[in-house]
Amino acid sequence: MTSIEGSVLVHCHRGCSIDDVLHALGLAKADLFDDRKGATYTYINPSGRAGRTVHRTPDKQFWQSGDLSQSVLYRLPQIVEAVAAGTTIFLAEGEKDVHALETINLVATTAAGGVNGWAKVDVTPLAGANVVAIVDRDTAGNDWAAAVQARLAPLDTHLTLVTASIGKDAADHVGAGLGAQDLIPYQLPLEPPTERATERGIAFTHGAAFILDSPASVTPLWGTGSDVLWAEGEALMLCGGQGAGKSSLAQQIVKARLGCVPGNRVLDFPVSVTTRRVLYLACDRPRQIRRSMSRMFTEADREVLAGRLMIWEGPPPYDLAKHPELLAVMCERAGADTVVIDSLKDVAIGLTEDEVAAAYNRSRQMALTAGIEVLELHHQTKRGAGGTAKADTLADVYGSVWLTAGVGSVIYLGGAAGDPIVEFKHLKQPAEPVGPFRLRHDHTRGQTTVGQQIDLVGLAASSLGGVTAKAAAAALYNSHSPSRAEIEKARRRLDGLCTEANPRLRKIEGDQASQVPAAYVPC
């Protein structure tokens, strides 16, 4: 038994119930209290006077008396003093739990009335505090934790949810002889979101703001100028075969998004740094993802990782195609404005079906509309021997067309599993196409760099009479017979080098009648 203020705690190390222990000792529950009528807990108002008193009977019946005009935290004077001193505050569901925590030298508090009490109590004394909430192991505990989280969110508190190692609540935990270091991290379960408009609100944007007040150009999250690999407000999909380095590249983008990369550049293109959090859905082989990330981050990144990177291990709790709002809800819970889905096959089942893929796309678009940037990892269609054929078009991306229709950018990484050099190809672009080029993976350090690139200015300088769009396309796409689309893409890139602020190429017009093509020469 453990003595606390007003009563004692009983714990059987063999797992017997309290009733069994009391029966063996010939005692009643009333014998566990200093007063056989039960316990009384007096709350102190900000004025320093006694406020409400909570009465508890031995059979756990409650009522209140005294001044009920104010709803304050239990042990308010001690809480105010502890917050000012920077001491961690422990929250529990009941006054008995508070008394138990005080026996192990912790500062603790609660609100009268359980879950309903947290809707009314003045929580402002906890503003800016480091708070640890001990959640009871029952359904009511989940409701209490959600209420606490909702009330403390606007106060800039640092809230950690934990639960008892043994027993149902904090009192059971202390009664078993355990301390604060033995508490177990707790994650509030997500409920299936509903589709009711009242939960998200209905908001309209007038036409002038939507059309005239928005930036005309694409804003890159990853890229610069017209070379945009990932555009703000548009999802990016990294596609390729298994082991081609999709996760590694995505994790490098995450590292730069968190501001942990010198110069914040990936593949020599700048990445916009977020001031909020990144949520990484490690759905597919989370242990492998952990090992990959451990090669990129060091102890010097601990503070950023602890405060701004949130990891969800395994698939989401519900299929995103069946619960489209869930992705935005998870990001809201994590405080994230960026989400990485590794990978798509694990968040929605049946992506080859148009209905499923369209439903997932709805989830994606709802997240984007909520201001969340989306990065997805996906696979290519298996074709050829061993399923290693190149993905040259969007049709080669696995699943329904709705998957690629709803993203702004699709990047393909081609190569066999573990290859140190893989192909980079921009299958869908928010602005001008980037690449193609070769990427070099350093698997030991978890770094990817651009290897072989086609220098169009250098190509023009080395070509007698300049380079044509067809010759540029042949070099860019490694093809002796580039398609019309590839030639047109090469032409746009060459024209861009002629019209930029400091032109590096000059265009010599051709003669259509004599079938002499235009050529581009260095300035």
Automatic annotation (TrEMBL):
Gene3D superfamilies to which the protein is assigned, alphabetical: 3.40.1360.10, P-loop containing nucleotide triphosphate hydrolases (3.40.50.300)
Organism this protein belongs to: Nocardioides renjunii
Lineage, broadest ranks: Bacteria, Bacillati, Actinomycetota, Actinomycetes, Propionibacteriales
Protein name: AAA family ATPase
Cross-referenced CDD domains: TOPRIM_primases (cd01029)
Stretch forming the signal peptide: none
